[in-house]
Amino acid sequence: DKEVRAIFLRLFAQLFQGYRSCLQLIRIHAEPVIHFHKAAFLGQRGLIENDFLTKVLNGMAFAGFVSERGPPFRTCDLFDELVAFEVERIKAEEGNPPKMIKHVRELAEHLFKNENPNPHIAFQKVPRPTEGSHLRVHILPFPRINEGRVQELLQEGLARSQGAPPATRGDKKCVVPAGPPVGMFI
Protein backbone atom coordinates (compact mmCIF):
# COMPACT_ATOMS: atom_id res chain seq x y z
CA ASP A 1 0.00 0.00 0.00
CA LYS A 2 2.69 2.49 1.00
CA GLU A 3 4.86 1.64 -2.01
CA VAL A 4 1.98 2.30 -4.42
CA ARG A 5 1.36 5.62 -2.68
CA ALA A 6 5.08 6.40 -2.88
CA ILE A 7 5.04 5.75 -6.65
CA PHE A 8 2.14 8.16 -7.11
CA LEU A 9 3.79 10.73 -4.85
CA ARG A 10 6.93 10.52 -6.96
CA LEU A 11 4.90 10.68 -10.20
CA PHE A 12 3.11 13.85 -9.15
CA ALA A 13 6.35 15.37 -7.87
CA GLN A 14 7.87 14.79 -11.32
CA LEU A 15 4.76 16.04 -13.09
CA PHE A 16 4.55 19.27 -11.08
CA GLN A 17 8.26 20.02 -10.58
CA GLY A 18 8.77 23.76 -10.76
CA TYR A 19 5.10 24.61 -10.28
CA ARG A 20 5.94 27.11 -7.52
CA SER A 21 7.79 29.35 -9.99
CA CYS A 22 4.51 29.78 -11.92
CA LEU A 23 2.42 30.84 -8.91
CA GLN A 24 1.36 34.46 -8.75
CA LEU A 25 0.07 36.13 -5.60
CA ILE A 26 -2.56 38.73 -6.49
CA ARG A 27 -3.16 41.26 -3.71
CA ILE A 28 -5.82 43.52 -5.23
CA HIS A 29 -8.62 41.82 -3.29
CA ALA A 30 -9.27 42.02 0.44
CA GLU A 31 -7.86 38.50 0.71
CA PRO A 32 -4.83 37.62 -1.46
CA VAL A 33 -5.58 35.23 -4.34
CA ILE A 34 -3.09 32.69 -5.67
CA HIS A 35 -3.10 32.19 -9.43
CA PHE A 36 -1.24 29.51 -11.37
CA HIS A 37 0.14 30.65 -14.74
CA LYS A 38 -0.62 27.52 -16.81
CA ALA A 39 0.70 28.85 -20.10
CA ALA A 40 4.08 29.71 -18.57
CA PHE A 41 4.31 26.30 -16.90
CA LEU A 42 3.49 24.40 -20.11
CA GLY A 43 5.56 26.71 -22.31
CA GLN A 44 8.71 26.53 -20.21
CA ARG A 45 8.48 22.74 -20.20
CA GLY A 46 7.75 22.57 -23.94
CA LEU A 47 4.43 20.82 -23.32
CA ILE A 48 1.89 23.30 -24.73
CA GLU A 49 0.47 20.63 -27.07
CA ASN A 50 0.28 17.96 -24.33
CA ASP A 51 -3.44 17.22 -23.92
CA PHE A 52 -3.05 15.14 -20.76
CA LEU A 53 -1.14 17.74 -18.76
CA THR A 54 -3.40 20.53 -20.04
CA LYS A 55 -6.46 18.63 -18.83
CA VAL A 56 -4.81 17.94 -15.47
CA LEU A 57 -4.01 21.64 -15.01
CA ASN A 58 -7.57 22.66 -15.98
CA GLY A 59 -9.18 20.21 -13.53
CA MET A 60 -10.77 21.01 -10.19
CA ALA A 61 -8.31 18.78 -8.36
CA PHE A 62 -5.40 20.92 -9.56
CA ALA A 63 -7.26 24.11 -8.61
CA GLY A 64 -7.62 22.67 -5.09
CA PHE A 65 -3.95 21.69 -5.16
CA VAL A 66 -2.95 25.29 -5.98
CA SER A 67 -5.21 26.82 -3.34
CA GLU A 68 -3.95 24.40 -0.68
CA ARG A 69 -0.26 24.35 -1.60
CA GLY A 70 0.09 27.81 -3.10
CA PRO A 71 0.59 29.90 0.03
CA PRO A 72 4.29 30.66 0.50
CA PHE A 73 4.09 30.20 4.29
CA ARG A 74 2.52 26.95 5.47
CA THR A 75 3.35 23.55 6.93
CA CYS A 76 5.67 21.63 4.57
CA ASP A 77 5.57 17.90 3.94
CA LEU A 78 7.22 15.10 1.99
CA PHE A 79 5.78 16.28 -1.35
CA ASP A 80 7.34 19.72 -0.90
CA GLU A 81 10.71 18.13 -0.18
CA LEU A 82 10.48 15.95 -3.29
CA VAL A 83 9.55 18.85 -5.56
CA ALA A 84 12.19 21.20 -4.15
CA PHE A 85 15.19 19.05 -3.28
CA GLU A 86 14.96 15.68 -5.03
CA VAL A 87 14.84 16.95 -8.63
CA GLU A 88 18.32 15.78 -9.57
CA ARG A 89 17.93 12.45 -7.78
CA ILE A 90 14.69 11.64 -9.60
CA LYS A 91 16.24 12.66 -12.92
CA ALA A 92 19.32 10.48 -12.29
CA GLU A 93 17.19 7.46 -11.38
CA GLU A 94 15.20 7.48 -14.65
CA GLY A 95 17.60 5.07 -16.36
CA ASN A 96 18.37 2.97 -13.29
CA PRO A 97 15.39 0.86 -12.09
CA PRO A 98 17.14 -0.58 -8.98
CA LYS A 99 17.89 2.94 -7.69
CA MET A 100 14.33 4.00 -8.49
CA ILE A 101 12.90 1.03 -6.57
CA LYS A 102 15.19 1.80 -3.63
CA HIS A 103 13.96 5.42 -3.59
CA VAL A 104 10.32 4.29 -3.78
CA ARG A 105 10.91 1.99 -0.79
CA GLU A 106 12.52 4.86 1.16
CA LEU A 107 9.50 7.06 0.39
CA ALA A 108 7.15 4.25 1.44
CA GLU A 109 9.02 3.89 4.73
CA HIS A 110 8.80 7.65 5.26
CA LEU A 111 5.03 7.57 4.57
CA PHE A 112 4.65 4.70 7.02
CA LYS A 113 6.56 6.57 9.72
CA ASN A 114 4.43 9.68 9.15
CA GLU A 115 1.24 7.69 9.68
CA ASN A 116 2.57 5.56 12.54
CA PRO A 117 4.78 7.82 14.64
CA ASN A 118 4.68 5.44 17.65
CA PRO A 119 5.42 1.96 16.26
CA HIS A 120 5.83 0.49 19.74
CA ILE A 121 2.11 0.93 20.38
CA ALA A 122 0.57 -2.18 18.87
CA PHE A 123 -3.13 -2.41 18.23
CA GLN A 124 -4.46 -5.87 18.86
CA LYS A 125 -7.28 -7.20 16.78
CA VAL A 126 -10.35 -8.20 18.72
CA PRO A 127 -10.69 -11.97 18.35
CA ARG A 128 -13.84 -13.35 16.78
CA PRO A 129 -16.16 -15.08 19.23
CA THR A 130 -15.92 -18.84 19.22
CA GLU A 131 -18.68 -21.00 17.84
CA GLY A 132 -21.56 -21.33 20.23
CA SER A 133 -20.38 -18.49 22.45
CA HIS A 134 -23.78 -16.83 22.21
CA LEU A 135 -25.35 -19.88 23.84
CA ARG A 136 -23.35 -19.58 27.05
CA VAL A 137 -25.35 -18.64 30.13
CA HIS A 138 -22.48 -17.75 32.45
CA ILE A 139 -21.98 -14.30 30.87
CA LEU A 140 -22.52 -11.61 33.48
CA PRO A 141 -24.80 -8.70 32.61
CA PHE A 142 -23.18 -5.35 31.89
CA PRO A 143 -22.92 -3.34 35.12
CA ARG A 144 -25.11 -0.28 35.55
CA ILE A 145 -23.43 3.10 35.28
CA ASN A 146 -23.27 5.24 38.41
CA GLU A 147 -24.68 8.58 37.24
CA GLY A 148 -23.26 10.47 40.24
CA ARG A 149 -19.73 9.25 39.48
CA VAL A 150 -20.11 10.21 35.78
CA GLN A 151 -21.09 13.75 36.80
CA GLU A 152 -18.09 13.97 39.15
CA LEU A 153 -15.72 12.92 36.37
CA LEU A 154 -17.25 15.44 33.97
CA GLN A 155 -16.87 18.24 36.51
CA GLU A 156 -13.23 17.29 37.16
CA GLY A 157 -12.49 17.27 33.43
CA LEU A 158 -14.13 20.67 32.93
CA ALA A 159 -12.19 22.16 35.83
CA ARG A 160 -8.92 20.84 34.40
CA SER A 161 -9.66 22.04 30.86
CA GLN A 162 -10.54 25.56 32.01
CA GLY A 163 -7.20 25.97 33.77
CA ALA A 164 -5.12 24.40 30.97
CA PRO A 165 -3.65 26.44 28.10
CA PRO A 166 -5.41 25.97 24.72
CA ALA A 167 -4.22 22.93 22.78
CA THR A 168 -2.29 23.66 19.59
CA ARG A 169 -1.08 21.39 16.83
CA GLY A 170 2.59 20.56 16.63
CA ASP A 171 2.86 21.46 12.93
CA LYS A 172 5.40 24.17 12.31
CA LYS A 173 4.77 26.56 9.47
CA CYS A 174 7.70 27.62 7.35
CA VAL A 175 8.49 29.24 4.04
CA VAL A 176 7.85 26.62 1.36
CA PRO A 177 11.01 25.92 -0.66
CA ALA A 178 10.51 26.99 -4.27
CA GLY A 179 12.84 24.43 -5.82
CA PRO A 180 14.40 24.85 -9.25
CA PRO A 181 12.61 26.89 -11.92
CA VAL A 182 10.41 25.16 -14.49
CA GLY A 183 12.86 25.70 -17.35
CA MET A 184 15.20 23.02 -15.93
CA PHE A 185 12.78 20.20 -16.74
CA ILE A 186 12.58 20.44 -20.53
TrEMBL record:
Gene Ontology BP terms: regulation of Rab protein signal transduction
A GO cellular component entry from the record: cytoplasmic vesicle
SMART domains: dDENN
Name the record gives this protein: MTMRD protein
InterPro entries for the chain: dDENN_dom, DENN_Domain_GEFs, Tripartite_DENN
Molecular-function GO terms, alphabetical: guanyl-nucleotide exchange factor activity
Species per Swiss-Prot/TrEMBL record: Illadopsis cleaveri (blackcap illadopsis)
Sequence ranges assigned to domain UDENN in this UniProt record: 1-76
